[in-house]
Amino acid sequence: MKTLLLSILSIGLALVACQKYEPSLGPAPTDADAQFTMAPSAANVNIIELSASNPSLQCVWDFGNGSKAQGANVTATYPYAGTYTIKLTVFAKGGSRSSTQEVTIANDDFTLLNNPYYTLLTGGVNGPGFKVWVVDSAASGHMGVGPDPESALGATPEWWAAGAGEKPGCGIYDDQYVFHLAGFKFDMITNGDVYVHNTIANEFPGSFQNLFDYTAPFADQLNESWLLTEDTDPTITISGSAFLGFYTGPRVYKILSATDSTLHLQYGHHAGGLKWYLKLKTL
Questions:
Q1: Largest alpha-carbon pair distance within the chain?
Q2: Which CATH number characterizes residue 162's domain?
Q3: The domain containing residue 56 runs over which residues?
């Protein structure tokens, strides 16, 4: 009898041990959670004020004009007339939910383009409407790399900085980057090739080793877009397959300093651990 009881107990414990444990993450957001209201601001009908119905959830917005934001209450700015689709996605531990609404902007309002960075990058509303930028190959440190996170030295290419003209014939010095004000269009003119980090050369068919990294055939990337985000650290984001300078994976560039004719940028690395540096000048 004792042996039988022990056998039954062992079987019971085995069955309990085999049961799959499924943790509960909590409920997913509902359709109602993803709703939002919108209205023109009192200051300008081209600035739309947006409010999420459930501010307790994480809220991510796509304004349909190339810009994005996070937060329960945000504003979207539309300098150009047109119909835009605004999308709100809310997140909870149990999942996410999205909803969209369209907003129609009746008239252009170019006063909304009077942003110092817009003017710097494109020439502004009173300029030609675009600027062409190239790598400042004559400047020391026009390419460089340092640690991520930064050391006590700050945002500087402390591990390596290119000397003037140090990368001839690699495909980077003849690339052109065109920032347009109208529609925030961006063109990357490659003249046939680009310079990419050795660890991602396999993403570029036909690439070949050249001065420690790789030169790769790459067509012009036209009619992409650029997005300026003005947080504590202003950044430029490039859409699609286009990029600036030496390609390491990311397409978000922090503005370290800027003048009407120079840009000093910092960006990341696809595998982390590195901060890259780039200096551009107007053509």
A1: 98
A2: 2.40.128
A3: 32-112
